[in-house]
Design brief:
Blueprint: E1 4-7, E2 12-15, H1 22-32, E3 41-46, E4 49-52, E5 57-60, H2 61-66, H3 75-99, E6 105-108, E7 116-119, E8 124-126, E9 132-135, H4 141-158
Antiparallel strand pairs: 1-2, 2-4, 3-4, 5-7, 6-9, 7-8
Length: 161
């Protein structure tokens, strides 16, 4: 079973296959208040449902890096992609230092190419906000693999713009 996304007139409703506990959502709301790379979350309906801002999406980062000319991506947009991945990691570490007890970290656990989108006004946005959670590992193993893939794909895409 996968997550369900329901597009409504003024928002997106996400139905999760696994619970996003309220205490993770509450930490996320504190974390997200000044992060321009995150969509606004409007309501926490229950541990498997929330609503968030509807974005005007051009493509996923994966699609954009595979074919930057098709999506009219320029050098600045492409360089913004790995920069945003770095920023998320740094922001999580800084937030952890201030808001999370010893031996735990507040991290995004599913930071991959299809969970980040490029909007039609060329903003890079992380759309899978329910993957923020407390964890015992500072660096999720998937992050390292995905980060190296993003760096390589960004490098390749820059050759074509």
């Amino acid at each position: 079973m996968t997550n369900s996304i329901i597009y409504e007139d003024n928002c997106v409703r996400k139905i999760l296959r696994t619970a996003w506990p309220k205490y993770h959502y509450d930490l996320f709301k504190i974390f997200a208040h000044d992060k321009k790379y995150l969509p606004k979350v409007y309501s926490y309906v229950c541990d498997i449902e929330y609503t968030m801002e509807k974005l005007d999406i051009l493509c996923t980062v994966q699609e954009g890096l595979i074919d930057p000319k098709k999506y009219k991506l320029n050098r600045d947009i492409i360089l913004s992609i790995p920069a945003m991945y770095n920023q998320i990691f740094v922001d999580c570490l800084n937030f952890t230092r201030l808001h999370v007890e010893d031996k735990l970290f507040f991290m995004h656990r599913d930071l991959h190419l299809s969970n980040v989108v490029i909007t039609k006004d060329h903003k890079i946005m992380l759309i899978d906000v329910d993957a923020f959670e407390k964890t015992y590992k500072m660096v999720p193993w998937k992050y390292l693999n995905n980060y190296m893939t993003i760096l390589w794909m960004s490098n390749e895409a820059l050759l074509h713009v």
